[in-house]
Protein 1
Amino acid sequence: MQLTQSQPKSFQVNTTSVTMLNNERWLVGLHILSAFFALFWGALMGPFQTFHRSPAFVAAFPNATMPIFSYYYQALTAHGVLNALFFTTMFITGISYYVTWRSFDRPLVGMPLAWVAYALELIGLVILFFVLLNDPQRSAVLFTFYPPLIAPPLFYIGLVLLVVGSWLGLLVVFLTYGAWRKENKAARIPLAPFAVMANYVMYFLASLGVAVEVLVLALPASLGLIQNTDPQLSRALFWFFGHPVVYFWLIPAYVSWYTMLPMQAGAKRVFSEPLAKIAFLMLMIFSVPTGLHHMFADPGISSTWKAIHTVFTLMVAVPSFMTAFNIGATLEIAGRNRGGKGLFGWMFTQKWSDPVVAAQLMGMLQFITGGITGLINASAQINTVVHNTSWVPAHFHQTVGGAVAMTYIGIMYWLLPMIRGRALYSKKMALAQVYTWGFGMTMFGHTLGEAGLAGVPRRTLSGLSPYLSEAATYWLNANAISGVILLVSLILLYANIVLTLFASKEPVTEGGYTVTKGDPTTPAILERWGLWIGVAVVLAALVWTVPFIDSINLTEGFQILRYSPAGPVPLK
Amino acid sequence: MALDKYERVWLTAVGGLIGSFMAALMVAYLIFDIRLPTFEARVDPANLNSTMFADLGVKKRGENKYDVVMLAKMWVFDAGKDGGNPGVPPVIRVPRGSRVTFYVTSLDVTHGVYVEDHSINLEIVPGQIARQSIPFNRPGEFRIICNQYCGAAHQGMYGTIVVE
Ligand code: HEM
Ligand SMILES: [Cu+2]
Ligand SMILES: [Cu+2]
């Protein structure tokens, strides 16, 4: 198959290797470093979770505890909160600033706001550390904090600060876009900030759900202002946010694949830019009307609405299939430029020994299994077999733990040297990290997925469970071995970060790539934000209003009291 | 904005794939009648005595038809006298070939009900009655597992259904 790029010949690509300005370096750098700080403590729990979930480990070391967050469910709460909420959000805020600044080729509008956003996110992070360490029993409500489990108030306050911080980051991006638009009336938006903006629109809409849940239901209950909870409504509000947020994490990885990887891998630019913009708009519109697929097993939601959300869930897979083609085609062009011949030769001529490229390619390979298992989960009736089993974490460690984390790590491998002004300490170490992570996560997914099919529940200290079958025990023990491999990978990752910051002597060679022009053949209608935001809001309202109304319980006058994870006595 | 030839082929294939997924789900739903749990009824956890949960256990409802009325609480399933001693994981029995409808609610926090090797998987949300109906055709002992995090001793919350 021979591919040709569809852009007109006259189109000039402006590809620059940039050196960073000082204030930009600090702003972006502190976000990225704080994100990786959160990931360190969060991800460190991961391997120990696999150990404590393994009956063989628990039999051999009956007195072992988790490191730092010593109690299993406290550690699991930290793992979810630090990895999935703080690492992702802080990284995304930082990389969105970078992309906006560089692609619009102008300074950010609202630098003070950007710093306030950072401060809020950081304070949120510190608060979460504090509450998790200080009150392990009560704060172990996991990152989904489903009422009637109620954590101490600081738990919610920390999360509110994170979300408000991310909203301010969004505001800075849109203010900067407004200024750029004034200066470039007729131009098309460069692809990277286009995707960042679509991502933020979708995220803002989605976060309204969790904001209402926390501010109206959970935080007042935690403060003791109200005595009752509404579990079903809380779950609906949470998943209004909870599904789109996984796309919020994914889109920045797509930004890297679409707008940075082509040049890093040896192609001039992405195969088709207009199609990429359509894909991002589809993600923006179809991410929110899907959340009920997390509630297929819920009692208080009608199965008709579950079916409607299933349709949109399958629709939102389409932009990912489009991405697979677009990026595949781009990589084929890159591979052929580098001498790849024949039908498959281009796969072997990729830069498998460049950590920045290799991390993203490994992430994509994992996204294949992540995507396929996702389609399985989305198939409403089949979901009954896997719901709340360890199959589910097996799935999302291929997506968020594989594709997203690997791509963020790949970005860090060029961005951190630029921020520090020194070369990456060791490329070899980085490569070893990439391949141990890729192999470890794949094995993790396979073993934990099999355990799930053998009946092992998720979010469970299964090393102590009295009900495991032989097959379940076998797969959980195998899963702990993948945990060892991932622990090695984590050590390699953080040794390299610390050494790059403090011991690297070589001048920086890494550079970021930015395209500062949008493809002029993009149809203008794709950039009419008002129209697409309107479509997204109307669609969200159409498919969520009835499930929300159906879930409300508070009005029944029920007494659904508040509990701590520590025991069956209601909170006072 | 011109589409590449291969791109058009790919998009058509994707459309076909997603379309056939939707068709398969519709067939399973409309023709094979495999339904997800749906809205059943609400119940006040503070007032279970005036509801069906005042009388827990295995109820025979007809030829090969049974209801299992169960209460989930931190950290045991309660199936009444039919489950054995209170406070320990219950063991309930049904004859092989029977169709069993589970009715479960929670006294305190969110729990889950999952039965090994069988297509039943429910979130037990306080304030709601979860219902699902499945056939038990193979003899054997199957674990009923709480698969939603319900606090400190969640890992030990289970029961057993014996198909005789
Ligand atoms: C370093 C490698 C990692 C290992 C070994 C690991 C291991 C695990 C395990 C065993 C669980 C399931 C625990 C249970 O259900 O009882 C889990 C849950 C989870 N992990 Fe990871 N993980 C790793 C990295 C990550 C990363 C990078 C992310 C996201 C950025 C992540 C996000 C999550 C989330 C959101 C959960 C669900 C928590 C919950 O159910 O409340 N993990 N992880
Ligand atoms: Cu989802
Ligand atoms: Cu439980």
Note: The first strand of chain B starts at residue 41 and ends at 42.
Protein 2
Amino acid sequence: MIDAYLLIDFGSTYTKLTLVDVVNEAIIATAKAITTVETNIMDGFNKAYENLCAKFDTKEVRIIKKLACSSAAGGLKMITIGLVPELTVEASKRAALGAGARVLKTYSFELTNAEIQEILNAKVDIILLSGGTDGGNSKTILHNARKIAEHIKHIPIIVAGNKCCYDEIKEIFDEASVNYVFTENVMPRLNVLNVVPVREKIREIFMKNIIKSKGMDEANNYIDGILMPTPAALLKAGEILSQGTSKQNGIGDLIIVDIGGATTDVHSLADGHPTKAGINLKGLQEPFAKRTVEGDLGMRYSALALYEASGEKLIKEYIDVPDIETRCAYLHDHIDYVPQDDTDVAFDEALAKVATRLALNRHAGYLEIAYTPLGDIFNQYGKDLLETKYLIGTGGVIVHSKHPEAILKEGLYSPSEPTILKPKDPIIKIDYEYILSAMGLLAFDLPDCALNIMKRYIVEI
Amino acid sequence: MNSNGKTVVIGVIGADVHAVGNKIIEHVLTSEGFNVVNVGVMSRQEDFINAAIETNADAILVSSLYGHAELDCQGFREKCNEAGLTNILLYIGGNIVVGKQDFAEVEERFKKMGFNRVYAPGVRIEEGIKDLKKDLGLV
Ligand code: B12
């Protein structure tokens, strides 16, 4: 009898299952089926489970635990509120993204009634309220707390701002019976980022409240826990793969590119400090585990947005067909389209290359130059990823491509854009078995097992 | 030294890389009990202003050593007003202009730009701190 973990990803399109032999640290089988949130989330699961059972000897395997992540039913939708756009607004956005949320919008300064209405209309799952360093500005966060207390009762609020306002915010919120929790300030001092406490609170609320509201109750009863949103599981996998566990080392700095139908996500696990001397770090501190989400770069739903973001000329660098815009529009309207011929395949790969290039341009840090008689002196904003060791590809288009390396290479440093600090010469690896998010889940219970499996299955081309 | 409860944003404006004075100023202000928020060298006006908003600062001390302060500081006060920092104290010092100019005129020009206090080359930060304490009602 083999002891196994069943890892489940209730994705926006597919419910993906990964069955892991936790003794021999091996993948037994994987399977998927279309996610069914409209009817019953378990329909899709059962279908996928049937597919899975066809692939192994069910008499030989005993499932000892079932863990899940989810991005079904629109994922975890959040908005974040801060004070200055480049500071607490950006800090709170980074914290929410790192927790696997979809950040629909961010708000700065004092909220207006129109903005409150917009937030109510957006039907978000969690609101993150920040603003002010500890001991810093209190006027804005107090104003925003009062506005929230007046209009928003039912949405969970996480408060992560100037701690000197917490007593007063408590009074305001208690009096209005607002559903809220406090955690540490997301930017306690200027440019100092503190994302982990916020991330933990988001995960707690996700597990407690969100599952119910997404009609996933039944799934939650059957499995041992829907632990986190899918992107958080992916980031967790990246963290373990990069940094290792208490028992063994990871592989070091890495970047994961995940190209989906609606978004392109980039995760970097790297501190991103300057790799050359004489560079002056500017701006808000970067989180070691950083996730950015490009809502205008995707293979299907966002194909048209990609066309607009990149321009026809850039796509033409990768494929020369006359009907680029028409194709993008078609893909936008047919989100389950599967390439039918060689041109379709080539077109998908061209879009994937553009998505990779632009997403990495936005994720990586950049340099600003000042000229002095002693030579150039640089300001660095964001992460220096020039020397990052690994670039890992995941997501349908990469996993199924015949040339995944060619797609990922578009994310490398380019002498034509020398101030953008993208990796110069990383080792490229592919998540062929599509197991990264499953390993993030497994890492919660069995980090060493997850690490060993990733080292074994996520391989160089 | 006990905190005096006042927050000061400091930094070197423009494409100016002179870092030594900035570190000294941070040290001296801290030991005088100020909560110092240092945006560092090569800072834009926005960097000073954003820092002042989030930290609810009482004053901004701008340093400029390389001689281009006049250009770098254009519109600084207006941007502060725009950002709601209407009563914030603005000081500037270092080597704020190039060459030998009549300092009274220089001071006049910077005051017109909205700086509350303007320091000639060679004026030490301790001088500035005396004025700062006076202007903030600490003495
Ligand atoms: C070291 C140095 C450099 C180094 C800087 C290294 C570094 N990263 O710090 C390098 C070689 C890079 C450099 C480059 C340049 N430098 Co240079 N540099 C100097 C030098 C020799 C010393 C500066 C220093 O560290 N002083 C020690 C510190 C403690 O003093 P401080 O910076 O003046 O700061 C104190 C006071 O000014 C005051 N203060 C400062 N700000 C404020 C604000 C307030 C409100 C108050 C009250 C007080 C105050 O308090 C500070 C602490 O005590 C000075 C000459 C000098 N002796 O000052 C020239 C000097 C500043 N540089 C000068 C120039 C012109 C340049 C260059 C443009 C080119 C060149 N010719 O060298 C480039 C500019 C580069 C750039 N983009 O910024 C000129 C500026 C002339 C002017 N403004 O009229 C100076 C004065 C030399 C000169 N006499 O020509 N430089």
Note: The domain at 7-20+30-135 of chain B is CATH 3.40.50.280 (Rossmann fold).
